[in-house]
């Protein structure tokens, strides 16, 4: 089965968040299930540089008239993936990140940049490349969501489409004035098309047009069909019935492997947890933390309201009072960054803060910290708790979305059965978080219980194996329709 996957970011080439990890890891997991995945992404400067640096063989394929612009596709095998890179300098050759300029502001033409990606994807899906016709097109998030819309609007044969929601908070809504420039037929300006409360909704249009909607955990799939979790799209999503499926994310267990991770100070395994201590000592050194026996808690995240990190920032003093040291790696809302930095100024050797994005440091944090705090207000799946499990860095999580699906709370029964892998608290609020912190500290103080939890966490199946089989099943069913 030939699958064309389309995403705005793909690890290890370009990453701002979890979407990249999934788009980067799922293809190889699917290969074991009879799926031959080609991944299409924009030709940002870092992507083009990576291709050049790898000295990889590149086949250049012209693509005529993508939304009135000139483009070409670069077909290349890199990092074990088959890639199609949309080289369109007028849209992607920018300083700054994939979505924002160097000052952090969204590019004003993001609608055009990702409509072009979607349009080019639709062209490839319908045979723009000689000898390549995918059986299934799998698009990710709003940036690629117009591909099913373009395909549904065309009167030529088209492959079946799957759209995965990684985060409903990002919908790609734009003023109606852009509609004529999208190259869609007039009929697409409708409730069944891209019209969304008088605006153009990229994700909304895709959710209507695709054959199957997936999201990244079963619990999130239930949350988004309710007014509380649907962010305005709950009615549409509820209407998709059994065509909406929740499949929990896995992680790339070769990139995230404490036994063979080049980023960490010392490799370790459940059978050799003494070596994990070297990583804790190294983390203390890296963050200038006081060296002592108590636990280190951590945060690796976008510092946003979604992630509930305002709550952690506000309880830094309480953490310190309880003998906890904290390391924070992240960036995001200025007020949360500032609150963490102020806590660092008050407690320089107990609260370590790195504002910014640092992939290898995130590995060292998971290897050296004792627990990772994830008090998200909503969380489609979450990956950092999965990395935490794999590294024996106990996740302390709010009971939402994929966090609820992937962590086994250390209640009495689970601890007795040696099945607990983390701590779950019910509401993302300050008091509830503090109660979870206290419960975590009690567990930590009983060294045997803690070691048992770490061992169960590290043995939990966080691989893509089961979930890849579920995706492959969906693709297969669609090809039979
Ligand atoms: N400062 C920093 N330095 C280094 N690494 C950092 C970092 N900040 C974040 N990261 C990394 O970025 C990734 C974040 O992934 P998440 O799944 O936690 O959230 P995100 O909201 O981006 O993803 C959305 O999509 C994913 C994928 O489906 C869903 O799991 C999730 O719930 C949804 O919100 C992780 O790999 C994390 O380690």
UniProtKB/TrEMBL annotation:
Residues 2-237 form the Starch synthase catalytic domain. Its EC number is 2.4.1.21. Residues 290-451 form the Glycosyl transferase family domain. Pfam families: Glyco_transf_5, Glycos_transf_1. Keywords: Glycogen biosynthesis, Glycosyltransferase, Transferase. SUPFAM superfamilies: UDP-Glycosyltransferase/glycogen phosphorylase (SSF53756). Belongs to the glycosyltransferase 1 family. Bacterial/plant glycogen synthase subfamily. Synthesizes alpha-1,4-glucan chains using ADP-glucose. This is Glycogen synthase. It comes from Jiella mangrovi.
């Amino acid at each position: 089965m030939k699958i064309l996957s389309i995403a705005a970011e793909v690890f290890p080439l370009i990453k701002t968040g979890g979407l990249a990890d999934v788009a980067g890891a799922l293809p190889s997991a699917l290969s074991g299930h009879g799926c031959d995945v080609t991944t299409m992404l924009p030709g940002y400067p870092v992507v083009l540089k990576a291709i050049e640096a790898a000295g990889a063989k590149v086949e250049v394929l012209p693509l005529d008239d993508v939304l009135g612009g000139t483009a070409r596709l670069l077909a290349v095998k890199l990092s074990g993936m088959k890639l199609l890179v949309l080289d369109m300098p007028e849209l992607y050759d920018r300083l700054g990140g994939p979505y924002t300029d160097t000052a952090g502001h969204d590019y004003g033409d993001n609608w055009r940049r990702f409509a072009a990606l979607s349009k080019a994807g639709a062209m490839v899906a319908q045979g723009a490349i000689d000898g390549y016709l995918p059986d299934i097109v799998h698009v990710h998030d709003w940036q690629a969501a117009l591909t099913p819309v373009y395909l549904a609007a065309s009167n030529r044969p088209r492959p079946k489409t799957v759209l995965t929601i990684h985060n409903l908070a990002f919908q790609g809504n734009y003023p109606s004035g852009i509609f004529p420039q999208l190259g869609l037929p007039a009929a697409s300006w409708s409730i069944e098309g891209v019209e969304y409360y008088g605006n153009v909704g990229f994700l909304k249009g895709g959710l209507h047009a695709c054959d199957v909607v997936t999201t990244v955990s079963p619990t999130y799939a239930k949350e988004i069909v309710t007014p509380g979790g649907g962010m305005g799209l709950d009615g549409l999503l509820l209407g998709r019935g059994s065509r909406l499926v929740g499949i929990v994310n896995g992680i790339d267990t070769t990139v995230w492997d404490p036994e063979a991770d080049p980023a960490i100070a010392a490799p370790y395994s459940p059978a050799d947890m003494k070596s994990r201590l070297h990583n804790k000592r190294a983390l203390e050194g890296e963050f200038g933390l006081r060296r002592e026996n108590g636990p280190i808690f951590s945060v690796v995240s976008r510092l946003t309201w979604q992630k509930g990190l305002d709550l952690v920032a506000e309880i830094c003093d309480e953490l310190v009072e309880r003998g906890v040291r904290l390391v924070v790696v992240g960036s995001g809302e200025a007020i949360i960054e500032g609150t963490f930095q102020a806590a660092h100024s008050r407690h320089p050797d107990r609260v370590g803060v790195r504002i910014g994005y640092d992939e290898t440091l995130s590995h060292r944090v998971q290897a050296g910290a004792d627990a990772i705090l994830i008090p998200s207000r909503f969380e489609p799946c979450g990956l950092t708790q999965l990395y935490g499990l794999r590294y024996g860095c106990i996740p302390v999580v709010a009971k939402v979305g994929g966090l609820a699906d992937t962590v086994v709370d250390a209640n009495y029964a689970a601890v007795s059965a040696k099945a607990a892998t983390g701590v779950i608290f019910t509401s993302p609020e300050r008091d509830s978080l503090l109660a979870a912190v206290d419960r975590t500290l009690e567990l930590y103080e009983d060294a045997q219980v803690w070691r048992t939890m770490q061992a169960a966490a590290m043995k939990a199946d966080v691989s893509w194996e089961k979930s890849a089989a579920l995706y492959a099943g969906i693709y297969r069913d669609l090809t039979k329709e």
